[in-house]
UniProtKB/TrEMBL annotation:
It comes from Dokdonella fugitiva. It comes from the Bacteria. InterPro entries: GTP-bd, P-loop_NTPase. This is G domain-containing protein. One of its GO terms (cellular component) is cytoplasm. GO terms for molecular function: GTP binding. One of its GO terms (biological process) is tRNA wobble uridine modification.
């Protein structure tokens, strides 16, 4: 007969009681030791007691400082660039390869041309970046009064990138880029314009009107990752009292001091609307201009401009090249997907034509091994992956096993195609076999292409897994496409006969 267990509540109570007793004993022992030490120190002469007390105090202070360093929250590390460093020569090579593949590269070439133009001009470009309604356009008007950009308290009025010439207090000129605000509903295109211009600039002023959100924090760290000067400006600081402003700046410095060149509080001015009560009880809407206070920002910009645009050019060029390289890689992936789809369609048709030549139902890829080998090799070439003959043979053998295990399912699915295309049933069983072979080659091609694109290697296990999934549940679009190919090939064969 099993022994009854003690209730869990009783066990927990006993454990808590034991822990409390141990803690109490530790406290009593510590206090006793402190009292004994105090008595012994009191008996010592002053010339010996004072140095010992000083040494003990120093040791306690050092221990406390060490514990504080270990326990304090870690600072956020500086962000890293979103793309690895790339040289101009590497970017040029990528663009040449894209041209060879008939990919439109005009946008990339225009970006490089603008990079060269700004370098040759020697002008210092500063982008004003931030969410909508943080006061970017008001700041442009304050830094470059002659520009007079449109100001609207509704926010989101900047829909394109505008450049204005500004002048610092010491007379040095700079080009201000007023970019669309981020965080606007349905503003993805304008946000991309803002990010592109921020990468083209020598320095970035990030404007915030309050504490940063998670999205703004990520945006700021992304900008800092390119290594160019970054200024964080708390705009509309005149709307906060001294304590609120100090608290906000304190939080900014705690989080962003490692990545921002300077953190300042400013007021760009701009329009302010409010209602006021009149003596007769009526209320009226009033719009007034707030005074600008930009001295801290002028000082920070002056410190950056003192080095000249040439000193800031390497970081700016690295940011632009990284973005051009990233877009070039996207275009290359898109081109590879397009070319891979054409290759799959080509070899699927060849497999269908071969199947119509009285290939036995349910046979695997060994019969059309040459086609399978050619398909895998062409897809590897498209994705720039080197493959060995042994790897291709191993892959086709494993896929052949997959086809044998699912051949009945493949033929059943092919039979369903005859329901969608009644005309297939009048062309004989060879069409059914052709659809089966077409599905095999279509599945193999897409599995190999996806594996090469994602893993940059011919992972046999991954390809086999993908082929199984594609054969088990072929999408109706794939099934109809292969059926159309089989129908067209069968009709061509009958016409030739």
């Amino acid at each position: 007969m099993p022994r009854p267990r003690l209730p869990l509540r009783l066990v927990l109570s006993a454990a808590l009681a034991l822990g409390a007793a141990l803690l109490l004993g530790l406290v009593v022992t510590t206090l006793n030791g402190v009292l004994e030490l105090y008595q012994r120190l009191a008996e010592l002469p002053p010339w010996l007691r004072i140095p010992l007390l000083a040494a003990a105090a120093g040791f306690a202070g050092a221990l406390g400082w060490l514990l504080w360093r270990l326990a304090r929250p870690a600072r956020h590390p500086a962000a890293v660039p979103t793309a690895p460093p790339v040289s101009r020569a590497e970017v040029d090579v990528r663009i040449d390869r894209l041209r060879e593949r008939a990919v439109a590269t005009a946008a990339l070439e225009a970006e490089l041309a603008e990079l060269d133009r700004r370098r040759a001009s020697g002008e210092l470009y500063v982008a004003l970046f931030g969410e909508i309604s943080t006061g970017k356009s008001s700041l442009v008007r304050a830094l470059a009064p002659q520009a007079a950009p449109e100001i609207d308290v509704r926010g989101g009025t900047t829909h394109h990138v505008a450049h204005h010439r500004g002048r610092l207090d010491d007379g040095r000129e700079l080009v201000l880029a007023d970019v669309p605000g981020t965080g606007e509903v349905d503003g993805a295109v304008r946000e991309q314009l803002a990010r592109d211009e921020a990468l083209r600039a020598h320095a970035v002023v990030y404007l915030a009107a309050a504490d940063l959100t998670r999205a703004q924090d990520a945006e700021l760290r992304w900008l800092a990752g390119f290594g160019k000067p970054l200024l964080l400006a708390l705009n509309k600081a005149d709307l906060y009292d001294d304590a609120q402003r100090a608290a906000l700046l304190g939080r900014f410095r705690e989080r962003y001091a490692p990545i921002a060149r300077a953190i300042v509080a400013i007021s760009a001015g701009g329009s302010e609307r409010y209602e006021r009560a009149l003596a007769d009880g009526r209320r009226e809407k009033v719009e007034r201009e707030r005074a600008a206070e930009l001295a801290p920002l002028f000082d920070a910009l002056g410190a950056i401009a003192a080095h000249g645009a040439e000193a800031l050019e390497p970081a700016r060029e690295a940011a632009v090249l990284a973005e051009v390289g990233r877009r070039g890689d996207e275009l290359a992936r898109t081109a590879a997907r397009r070319e891979a789809e054409l290759a799959i369609t080509k070899y699927t048709r060849r497999a269908v034509v071969g199947a119509l030549a009285a290939v036995a139902p349910g046979s695997d890829l060994l019969i059309q091994g040459a086609l399978g080998t050619a398909l895998v090799r062409e897809l590897a070439r498209i994705h720039g992956v080197a493959v060995r003959e042994l790897d291709v043979e191993t892959l086709l053998a494993r896929v052949g096993l997959t086809v044998r295990n699912t051949s009945a399912l493949v033929l059943a699915i092919a039979g369903n195609a005859m329901k969608a295309f009644p005309g297939l049933g009048t062309l004989g069983g060879g069409v059914l076999h052709a659809i089966a072979y077409g599905l095999v080659f279509d599945s193999l091609g897409h599995a190999v292409a996806d594996t090469l694109a994602e893993r940059a290697t011919l992972d046999t296990t991954d390809v086999e897994t993908r082929v199984r999934a594609l054969l088990a549940e072929p999408a109706r679009e794939r099934l109809e496409r292969v059926a159309r190919v089989a129908l067209a090939a069968a009709r061509e064969t009958r016409a030739e006969d």
